[in-house]
């Protein structure tokens, strides 16, 4: 059993809970997810099974799309609705679409710096930040650079806004909501989060956990090579054997990553060509 399942994670489960559920239901040992979703969030969560776990890092690195609700007028210690209110904007205000849009376009598109929430899975000296925060420890999380490709305002209602965000890996939408609130001067926290896409995996093509079973899993799983956006390269019999044994081969092709197939068009793995030398990166046979 080797492949990737596009799971619709429900709110209330951690990403690890989803992995544990499928491990037991499908009776598989090698299984992992490709990017943590907050327990309260829902949406696309690709799950790698068997040899497909070798591409977890490749899939995690792909762009993400989200729909989120941002609630203005209060801030919380977790930057979402599940935390304790730490500050409240006392004056009455009206959320203005034009002002919000102007702030987004001028300060939150392109490469930006953000600080992940204290209640996050970031590691601080080997410990998860959320564990330190729950124990009341004081600590600093360094800023990180992320890329926001686009933010569309879907709707503005009362003191809330619905946003669609296209961003790079590592982006914390909770931090984005908090920072937007600070820029507008009202404070803000994230009301809900739905991940609609990660790489090629889209919400419309996802499966709820109850749909997955041993009988249909092979029809639902996507094969590794179909998910990689690399050029293909076919090897002859001798080259195929050497590649699978980790031997560096001479190949006159442009530099870059390739999907490697044998003479029977069977997928062997991922290779990297540099200066006409093909180096095996990941082998799947």
From TrEMBL:
Any one GO BP annotation for this protein: mRNA pseudouridine synthesis
Keywords annotated in UniProt: Isomerase, Lyase, tRNA processing
Keyword 4Fe-4S attached: no
One Pfam family named in its UniProt record: TruB_N
EC class of the enzyme, as a word: isomerase
Catalysed transformations (reactions): uridine(55) in tRNA = pseudouridine(55) in tRNA
Molecular function terms from GO: lyase activity; RNA binding; tRNA pseudouridine(55) synthase activity
Residue ranges of domain tRNA pseudouridylate synthase B C-terminal in the record: 174-214
EC number assigned by the record: 5.4.99.25
Start and end residues of each tRNA pseudouridine synthase II TruB subfamily 1 C-terminal domain: 233-282
Active site: residue positions: 38
Residues of the Pseudouridine synthase II N-terminal domain: 23-173
Function recorded in the entry: Responsible for synthesis of pseudouridine from uracil-55 in the psi GC loop of transfer RNAs.
NCBIfam families the UniProt entry points to: TruB
Family, similarity comment: Belongs to the pseudouridine synthase TruB family. Type 1 subfamily.
PANTHER family, per database record: PSEUDOURIDYLATE SYNTHASE TRUB1, TRNA-PSEUDOURIDINE SYNTHASE
UniProt-recorded name of the protein: tRNA pseudouridine synthase B
Species of provenance: Thermobrachium celere DSM 8682
């Amino acid at each position: 059993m080797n492949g990737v399942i596009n799971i619709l994670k429900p709110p209330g489960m951690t990403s690890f809970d989803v992995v544990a559920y499928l491990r037991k239901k499908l009776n598989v040992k090698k299984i992992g997810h490709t990017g943590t979703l907050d327990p309260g969030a829902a949406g696309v969560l690709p799950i790698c099974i068997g040899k497909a776990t070798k591409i977890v890092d490749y899939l995690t690195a792909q762009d993400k799309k989200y729909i989120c609700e941002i609630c203005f007028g209060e801030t919380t210690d977790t930057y979402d609705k599940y935390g304790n209110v730490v500050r409240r904007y006392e004056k009455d205000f009206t959320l203005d679409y034009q002002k919000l849009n102007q702030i987004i376009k001028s300060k939150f598109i392109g490469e930006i710096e953000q600080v992940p929430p204290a209640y996050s899975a970031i590691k601080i000296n080997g410990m998860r930040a959320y564990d330190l925060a729950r124990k009341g420890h004081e600590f600093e999380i360094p800023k990180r650079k992320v890329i926001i490709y686009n933010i569309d305002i879907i709707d503005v209602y009362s003191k809330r806004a619905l946003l669609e965000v296209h961003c790079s890996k590592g982006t914390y939408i909770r931090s984005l909501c908090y920072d937007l609130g600070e820029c507008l001067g009202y404070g803000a926290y994230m009301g809900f989060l739905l991940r609609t896409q990660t790489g090629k995996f889209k919400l419309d093509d996802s499966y709820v956990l109850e749909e997955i079973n041993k009988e249909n899993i092979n029809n639902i799983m996507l094969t590794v090579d179909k998910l990689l956006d690399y050029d293909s390269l076919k090897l002859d019999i001798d080259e195929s054997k050497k590649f699978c044994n980790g031997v560096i081969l001479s190949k006159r092709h442009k530099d870059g990553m390739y999907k490697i197939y044998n003479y029977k068009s069977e997928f062997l793995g991922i290779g990297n060509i540099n200066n006409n030398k093909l180096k095996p990166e990941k082998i799947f046979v």
